[in-house]
Structures are given as C-alpha cells and as structure tokens.
Specification:
single chain; 45% strand; alpha+beta
C-alpha cells in the first residue's frame, strides 16, 4: 500500500495573469519480503509460511510532483528512490528549492542520485 504526504506547496507566477501550483509529495511503500529457508534453495509461498525462518518488513520511499495550471494538470512519480526516508525528503527539498516540474523530474532525480553515489 502506498501512503502519500504533501511536504511542500508552491505557486509560481509565469506572468501577470498565469501561474502554476506545484505539490511535492513523499510516497511511502510498505514491503514485506519472505526470506528463504536456510535449508532449502527455493522460496516458499504463503501456504508453507510455517517453514519460513523470518519475514522482513520495511518501507521504501518515492517522490511525486503535481503541477496544476488554469487549463492543465501534470503529474509524475517515482515509487522507489530510497530505503531512507531522510534521503527521499532531502531530494524532495532540492526539487522544491529549484522549482522542478513533473516534466523534468525524472532526469533531475537521476542527476541527484548519481551525484550522491559519486560522493560515497
């Protein structure tokens, strides 16, 4: 199940009469992974859940940007950016700070994630 939380809202005036409204949204996806039994080489389905050693539960985070203007609505999302909520929030803040729209979101996020991986 995907939960969403609007973190930032912004209205940008393009000229005297036109504006766009942007919403920057954190997506949280819950996951549950069935782990492999150490004695077997295959994964078991839920009907054999008693043989499983453990279940791993957690979340991974994504980003959505909504853009609304007088006659148009655009939206784009990436559901899996990071397992770290703080990292996803940092990326959303950067997108908000630089007025990133849904049209360019994927390329900008790719650049941000690539730059962060080079810093490690």
């Amino acid at each position: 199940m995907i939960k969403s939380e609007v973190l930032y809202n912004k209205e940008i005036w393009l000229d005297d009469t036109r504006s766009i409204k942007l919403k920057y949204i954190l997506l949280e996806n819950s996951i549950e992974i069935l782990e492999r039994d150490k004695n077997e080489k295959n994964f078991y389905d839920l009907s054999q859940a008693s043989r499983l050693e453990e279940k791993v539960a957690g979340s991974y985070y994504g980003i959505e940007i909504e853009q609304e203007s007088a006659n148009r609505f655009d939206i784009d999302r990436i559901e899996g950016i990071s397992y770290s909520k703080d990292e996803a929030i940092d990326i959303i803040y950067t997108l908000f700070e630089y007025d990133v729209t849904p049209i360019s979101m994927v390329e900008i996020i790719d650049d941000i994630v690539t730059q962060k991986s080079l810093e490690w």
